[in-house]
Design a protein that fits this description.
Layout: H1 2-26, E1 44-49, H2 57-72, E2 77-82, H3 90-99, E3 104-105, H4 109-112, H5 131-139, H6 141-149, E4 155-165, E5 167-170, E6 185-188, H7 192-200, E7 204-207, H8 213-218, E8 224-227, H9 229-234, E9 243-245, E10 251-259, H10 260-264, H11 268-302, E11 306-308, H12 312-333, H13 335-348
Parallel strand pairs: 1-2, 1-3, 6-7, 9-11
Antiparallel strand pairs: 3-10, 4-10, 5-8, 5-9
Helix pairs in contact: 2-11, 5-13, 7-12
Bound molecules: 2-keto-3-deoxygluconate.
2-keto-3-deoxygluconate binds at residues 50-52, 58, 90, 106-108, 163, 189, 210, 227, 252.
């Protein structure tokens, strides 16, 4: 009887120890190198996830955010960083922020328009002439006003970062003019304006999460996609895509998002630290991203991609083809927001 009791105690002890061990390794997936439970004491933990990989300027910016926040709060806030969609795609991570099960994500504004329709103003093709004008508009009054609208969705928009001007790639043919879009199966972000703009160009678009894109191109479910050169290069899309054209059809901003319930639980000092850190890390990310976009077109060609230059005339034809779609969407986005953004662009030029 005594022996049996001893054996039961030993089994119980082993089970308890194994359970503790599991808890630690489960929570140490992040690249922070330190798990939420391990060594962080009473620290608040920010789980921050993005869709792009750890070579991308977006991830480098996120590491900068982590460095600033952990230093400025003396370790009272820890940041765990996750890349490559380890925590989900733009939409599901944004929903996790709303639920309070994740604290930070940095989606493109395009999928965010499913939460706050006014964000679709940045999906108007050929809206921004260059990055400098985009910075002024986004960091200025109308850009900040749009960030404020996120609160109704239980989200806090701390800053704009940069994804950049989007360019077309595909595995079928060189795209030099509107006619070349005919029938091409193009993956778009999950956004109605993008979808309708590509239909107007004659393509056959499919909305899809970024996390599914590489496989879809590899398996031929889609012929092509559109993203900035940095993403095309760093995500190795050249392995499954042959042609690249400088369509530059949309400038994609990123929004640095925080869960509102987490943000509201921070002290005022901590709120200021995370806000300033998101802005500071964003400046760093924009700089890295611009350097990356400048050099990667050449490297894409070195990897074997064929580059097609879009002439001014061809770009004008593309603008004409999507003009009715823009007209249609003005009321869906909200005339007031569209007018404010157009005005801010004129002033910034
Ligand atoms: O981390 C951001 C990415 O998830 C995504 O926004 C990238 O531009 C993108 C796309 O095409 O989905």
């Amino acid at each position: 009887m005594k022996k049996l009791f001893g054996l039961m105690c030993a089994v119980l002890l082993i089970t308890v120890l194994a359970a503790c061990g599991n808890g630690e390794s489960d929570s140490s997936n992040g690249d922070s190198g330190e798990s939420a439970s391990e060594g962080s004491g009473d620290a608040k933990v920010i789980k921050a996830g993005i869709g792009l990989n750890d070579d991308h300027p977006q991830y480098k910016g996120l590491l900068k955010f982590k460095e600033i926040v952990e230093k400025e709060t003396d370790g009272a806030i820890k940041v765990e960083t996750y890349h490559s969609g380890q925590l989900g795609d733009d939409r599901s991570m944004t929903e996790a922020l709303q639920l309070g099960t994740q604290e930070v994500t940095i989606p493109s504004t395009a999928p965010l328009a499913n939460f706050v329709p006014e964000f679709s103003v940045f999906d108007i093709p050929f809206l921004f002439p260059n990055e400098e004008v985009a910075d002024k508009v986004l960091d200025g009054e109308v850009g900040q006003e749009l960030l404020g609208k996120l609160e109704e969705q239980n989200l806090v928009g701390l800053a704009y970062w940069e994804n950049g001007f989007r360019d077309l790639t595909n595995s079928e043919r060189a795209v030099a003019s509107v006619e070349d879009f005919e029938g091409l199966k193009i993956r778009t972000m999950e956004n109605d304006l993008h979808l309708d703009a590509f239909k107007a160009l004659g393509a056959n678009p499919t909305p899809m999460a970024f996390t599914e894109l590489f496989t879809a191109m590899q398996q031929g479910t889609v012929d092509g996609q559109e993203n900035p050169y940095a993403t095309i290069y760093l995500q190795k899309f050249y392995e499954v895509q042959k042609h690249v054209s400088n369509t530059h059809h949309i400038y994609s901003p990123f929004v640095f998002l925080m869960s509102k319930s987490f943000y509201d639980g921070l002290s005022e000092d901590q709120q200021k630290i995370v806000k300033d850190a998101a802005v500071e890390a964003g400046k760093y990310e924009r700089k890295l991203n611009r350097e990356a976009n400048e050099k990667y077109l050449e490297q894409l060609q070195e990897e074997g991609m064929e580059y097609t230059e879009i002439t001014d005339e061809a770009r004008q034809e593309m603008k004409d083809a999507v003009a009715p779609v823009i007209e249609e969407y003005k009321s869906k986005i909200g005339e007031e927001t569209v007018d404010k953004v157009y005005k801010a662009i004129e002033e910034a030029k």
